[in-house]
């Protein structure tokens, strides 16, 4: 069943979009990531222009993240205070990111920037997560292995400390705000919730327990991506509602399934699965950038069509 997307100006199979939304929703529920880092490249692969994919995908992340948060809220695994601090940074970052996105759109470099950002970030994060998860798996397989206590790192020496009871932390608010700003910028430029950066940052930099990280990450993602969508819709008019609705339906159903699957797997297994997925998408995008396009002059097709 083909459906025409007015803003993207392409026809796509409606069931394919529902399926993609569902797949990303499942990942969202399992890993606490908005899933945009996979969905946006998948939309590129089926022919959606990057500028439209980025702005519209932010919309879908809001719904699948909201659906995921409800499931975590019932289990009391959301640190609202930490989420609020991350959110302050996230909103500042999103506003900066949309400005940068618009500036690059003016000079026609936005598609290249979006794809390059994906390759760089997915490559670095996927690699680091994969190595770390392998180590964690090895440790858990050793008989009598005692998990090491977290040492105090540089984060604990900074001023402006605050108690985060749900996470069992007493740390400075500066690192969470900085993580939030970075995630906000990425949300605007790459159409992602930023969970694939926020989740590792919350575990390794802030020292939060894994079970609280997923729900808290989704809570922050809802507001940052909603704000980003609003900015894109008002400044760029690149939000395709028909595309967003189909992705939304799939995403909300998928998030509920994903949350259930996530509970059955160990934290180390979840992290290694996520790392493999991230690296696979990174590889496909890098290949697309390096290989010569089939139509070198697809832009100048004015008169003959």
TrEMBL record:
Topology in the lipid bilayer: Multi-pass membrane protein
GO cellular component terms listed in the entry, alphabetical order: plasma membrane
InterPro entries: TM_pro_TauE-like (IPR002781), TSUP/Inactive_protease-like (IPR051598)
Membrane-spanning ranges: 12-31, 80-100, 112-131, 173-206, 212-231, 243-263, 269-291
One Pfam family cited in the UniProt record for this chain: TauE
Superkingdom of origin: Bacteria
UniProt subcellular location: Cell membrane; Membrane
Coarse class of the protein's main subcellular location: membrane
Keyword vocabulary terms for this entry: Cell membrane, Membrane, Transmembrane, Transmembrane helix
Family: Belongs to the 4-toluene sulfonate uptake permease (TSUP) (TC 2.A.102) family.
Protein name: Probable membrane transporter protein
Taxonomic source organism: Halocynthiibacter halioticoli
Lineage of the organism: Bacteria, Pseudomonadati, Pseudomonadota, Alphaproteobacteria, Rhodobacterales
């Amino acid at each position: 069943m083909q459906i025409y997307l007015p803003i993207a100006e392409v026809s796509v199979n409606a069931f394919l979009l529902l399926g993609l939304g569902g797949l990303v929703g499942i990942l969202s529920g399992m890993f606490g990531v908005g899933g945009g880092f996979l969905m946006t490249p998948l939309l590129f692969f089926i022919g959606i222009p990057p500028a439209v994919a980025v702005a519209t995908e932010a919309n879908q992340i809001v719904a699948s993240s909201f659906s995921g948060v409800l499931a975590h809220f019932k289990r009391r695994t959301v640190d609202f205070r930490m989420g609020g601090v991350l959110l302050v940074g996230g909103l500042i970052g999103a506003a900066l990111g949309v400005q940068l996105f618009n500036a690059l759109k003016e000079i026609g470099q936005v598609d290249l920037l979006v794809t390059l950002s994906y390759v760089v970030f997915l490559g670095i994060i996927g690699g680091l997560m994969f190595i770390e998860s392998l180590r964690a798996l090895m440790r858990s397989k050793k008989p009598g292995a005692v998990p090491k206590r977290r040492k105090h790192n540089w984060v604990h020496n900074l001023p402006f400390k605050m108690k985060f009871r749900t996470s069992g932390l007493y740390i400075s608010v500066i690192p969470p705000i900085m993580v939030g700003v970075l995630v906000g910028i990425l949300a605007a430029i790459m159409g992602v919730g930023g969970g694939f950066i926020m989740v590792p940052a919350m575990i390794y930099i802030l020292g939060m327990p894994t079970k609280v990280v997923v729900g808290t990450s989704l809570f922050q993602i809802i507001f940052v991506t909603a704000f980003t969508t609003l900015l894109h819709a008002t400044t760029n008019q690149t939000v395709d509602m028909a595309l967003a609705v189909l992705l939304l339906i799939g995403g909300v159903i998928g998030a509920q399934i994903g949350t259930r699957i996530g509970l059955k797997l160990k934290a180390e297994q979840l992290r290694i699965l996520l790392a493999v997925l991230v690296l696979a998408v990174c590889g496909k995008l890098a290949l697309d950038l390096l290989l010569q396009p089939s139509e070198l002059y697809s832009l100048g097709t004015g008169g003959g069509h």
